[in-house]
Design a protein that fits this description.
Length: 244
Amino acid sequence: MTIAQLIKQNGARLDPLRTGDISAAKRHKDASILISSHYNSFERIRKRLFNGSLYKNGLSPSAIRIVAALEDVGLVGKMSDGGYKALTAESRRFITGGWLEEVSCLASNEAGADEVLFGQQIKWHFDDYFGENEIDVIARFGQRLAFYSCKAYSATYRNKNDRGRKKLMEALHEADNLVDHFGSKESYVGLILSTDLYDEYARKPKYEALFGKAKALNVDLITLEDLEWNKLVKAMSRPKRQKQ
């Protein structure tokens, strides 16, 4: 069965008019991969792309490559004074987090998914209640659905920032709800974060409660450490590798 058919079994349906553009994601692929692989560099220039105050002078080599890739696909434009700016609603959506949905979708496809959708609006009804949700990425491996929530947060995790910790925990529960509402007991769920949550020196998570809760809820955490393209493809292949 297709994603649409599997979703329908749970009282929901895909809105074919409100879904991500796969062809656009493929056009943006080089830019998405550069951002995911060099997110720290991208984070330092992202805000300046909105107000046209980004200039190449003084940028790191990786930031210059990112700007060039965005310009190549028309996601940023060069202003008369030499600055670069996101000029369209599409480019602003991409820069604020759409890139993470797109690169995750493409990585799922590369990982061997039989079908992938991103930015997909779902309409549902249970008993007398009706509603809508957007799911960032849905991948189908055989008859198993994988649901992913993508959050482009700050790359730096600050342990003493209670608001930031709460935000991460809320994102985890939001991801877990996807399976409760639209999946089955065989479904897979992941939370993809652009935040560095693993202490390489200490070889342990920086936010242990989040990882513990994710394990209890059976939510796969994919963090900044996994966003380099080859690592991301490997991470997105986990639903395929696990017994269905």
